[in-house]
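Inverse folding, one chain.
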């Protein structure tokens, strides 16, 4: 059964101290807003002990039509269980690439025997399409039907997350966009060099600030 969780995107605001406001006005700061947006701390969250989490992402370049996707399955220590990157031909939109990446990620987990997984994507449109919260584009009907067939074999929970919390999958998708073959990895040591940086930051829980 598939469920969805929304991540809050509310930002806290801070009022400037009165003394600061007066100083700004004296120095021609009347055009400045008195309220500033406090930075939001965002990071990839490790799954609970005994759980596995699949992060997927798609990449689509409208100028060239090139597209790719990728995903990574990790345990509660942030260790890579398996990952993939793939180039997609005939992709028509970013949602198309995102959906293909999710389909391939679910298929990878199913083929490896990992049948109970958490899924994260930074595409709200994909999340809403998969969970039936929004209408699916008819041109992508086949992809969503095939995805549903795979999902019947799995116990999955899909969650929309901020882009900053999906950096490892983002770089894997970019790699898939640049390659001409389908790649699979089962060891973190052999992940593409461009992916290792964000992967290691996720593993140790390093946060990103959204200002």
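Residues assigned per position:
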């Amino acid at each position: 059964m598939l469920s969805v969780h929304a991540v809050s995107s509310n930002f806290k605001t801070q009022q400037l101290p009165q003394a600061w406001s007066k100083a700004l006005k004296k120095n021609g700061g009347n055009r400045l807003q008195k309220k500033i947006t406090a930075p939001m701390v965002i990071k990839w969250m490790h799954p609970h002990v005994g759980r596995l989490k699949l992060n997927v992402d798609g990449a689509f370049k409208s100028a060239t039509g090139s597209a790719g996707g990728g995903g990574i399955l990790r345990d509660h220590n942030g260790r890579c269980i398996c990952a993939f990157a793939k180039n997609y031909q005939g992709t028509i939109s970013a949602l198309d690439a995102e959906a293909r990446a999710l389909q391939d990620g679910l298929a990878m987990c199913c083929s490896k025997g990992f049948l109970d997984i958490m899924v994260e994507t930074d595409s709200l449109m994909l999340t809403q399409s998969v969970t039936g919260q929004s209408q699916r584009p008819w041109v992508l009907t086949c992809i969503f039907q095939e995805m549903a067939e795979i999902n019947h074999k799995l116990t999955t929970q899909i969650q929309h997350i901020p882009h900053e919390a999906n950096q490892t999958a983002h770089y894997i998708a970019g790699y898939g966009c640049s390659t001409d073959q389908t790649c699979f990895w089962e060891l973190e040591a052999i992940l593409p060099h461009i992916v290792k940086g964000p992967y290691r930051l996720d593993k140790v829980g390093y946060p990103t600030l959204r200002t």
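Residues 94-112 form the longest helix (19 residues). The two ends are 36 Å apart (CA to CA).
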